[in-house]
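Practice problem: Leucine-rich repeat-containing protein 6
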Amino acid sequence: MGRITEDLIRRNAEHNDCVIFSLEELSLHQQEIERLEHIDKWCRDLKILYLQNNLIGKIENVSKLKRLEYLNLALNNIEKIENLEGCEGLTKLDLTVNFIGELSSIKTLQHNIHLKELFLMGNPCADFDGYRQFVVATLQQLKWLDGKEIERSERIQALQNFPVIEQQIGEQERAYCLRRAKDKEEAQRNLQEEEGNEAKGRSYPGFEGWSPFSVESKDHIQAPEGQEGECNQKKFKDSEDDLEFWNKPSLFTPESRLETLRHMEKQRKDQEKLSEKKKKVKPPRILITKDGKALNVNDPKLDFSLKDDEKRNQIILDLAVYRYMDTSLIDVDVQPTYVRVMVKGKPFQLVLPAEVKPDGSSAKRSQTTGHLVICMPKVDGVITGWRQTSKPGESTLDSSREHTNQRSKQIEKLEVDPSKHSFPDVANIVQEKKHRPRRVQSEPKITASEEDPDFEDNPEVPPLI
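Answer key — C-alpha cells:
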C-alpha cells in the first residue's frame, strides 16, 4: 500500500525543480494511497491537488491549505464530506465515484464561500430522490453541480421545497447507513475466513494431502519430476482461484476495492517468487585455471583487434567499447602475460603473445569512436614458448635482434684493461722522430752544435731568429 512520503512528492515536483515548499500544483493519482497526510505541512502554497484513483477513505490534513483552489478526490473510498472548512480559497471540488451516502455532510461546505463547482456523480447519495434539489438549496454559492449549470429558477424552487426534501433525504440516509453497516460486517467476516484459510495453507505449504513426516512426502521432495508436477498443480490451482475470485459477484464497496487490491498484490508477489525460482544462479566465471593458466574470455561480446607494433616494440589492444558508455564503468588490469578489462562488471580477458611491462602500459578512450586503446610495451630479451613455433618471416626478425644484442654486449665490454696500461717512453718518442722526413730533421742540426765542447754561449749575443 502506498503512502505519501517526501520522496514521492519530490519525484512528482520535477516541474518545480523538486522544491516542495513552494509547489502550487501536485499530482499524486494512481499511487494506491490510503491516507492523506503531510501535505498540509510540506506544501502550504498548493493551488491544485490531484488525488484521484487512490484508496483514500477520509478527507483529512488539508485544512491548512488556504490557497487551495481545486481538489480532485475522484475514484476513492470517501464516505463523508468533512475537514474542508479551512480551505478558504476552494472553488472546485471533485468527488466523483466515491461512497458518499451521508448527503447531509455537504452542509460543511457552506463555509467555503468561493466554491462554485461540485461533482458528486457516481456516489450512492446521487441516487437519492431529491438529491439535486437538496444540494442546490443547501449550497447557495454553487454555480455548477455535476457539470450542469444551476439556474436561478431551479434554486428558487429548491428553496421552496427544502423542508420536504430534507425529510426525504434523512430517511434515505438512515436506510443506507443500515445497509452499509451490514455490508461492513459481512466483509469483516469474509476477511477473517480468508485469513484463517491462508494460515492453514501456510502451516504445510506445498503438501496438500501429504503428511510432513511421511516417507512419501520425502521422496516427493527429493524427486525433481515430483517437484515439477507439484509446481504445475500449484499453478493450475492458482489459476482456478484467480478465475473464481474474478467471477464471484460482489458489491461495489470500499472493502471490495481493498480486497481486489490485496488480491492483485498477492498475485504480483507470487509471480515474483516464481520468477526468482526460475532464475538459475550462474556459476562464477573462471578466468584463471588451477594451474595458473589465464583463459581467453569475452563476456561483454565486444569486437577487438590485437596488433604487434615492431617499431615501438609494443602490443596494442583496440577494444570496441560502446561509444556512449561512461568511462567509470570500465576497469583495466594489465598483467605481464594477459590483459583484463571489466566492462559493466563483465570480464574481457585476453592472453598476450609476449611478455609486457604493466607499469609502462597506458589506456585511452577514442573521442570519435569511444574505443578503448591499450598500449603495452614488451619486455626486451624475453622469448616465450609461443615464439619457438614462429613463421619463417619472424626468424629473420629474431636473428637481427640477436645480432643487435651481441653488438650491445660488445659495446658494454669496451673498457680499458688495467693490465694494458702503458706510460710514454722518451727513447721511443725520440726514435720515432729520427725516422721523420728530411725537411723535418733539418732543424735539429742547431742542437747538435750546441752539444759541441768548443761551443761558448755568450749572453750578450742576441739569439738567431
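Discussion: DSSP finds twelve helices and 15 strands in the chain. Students who identified this feature from the C-alpha cells alone can consider the problem solved.
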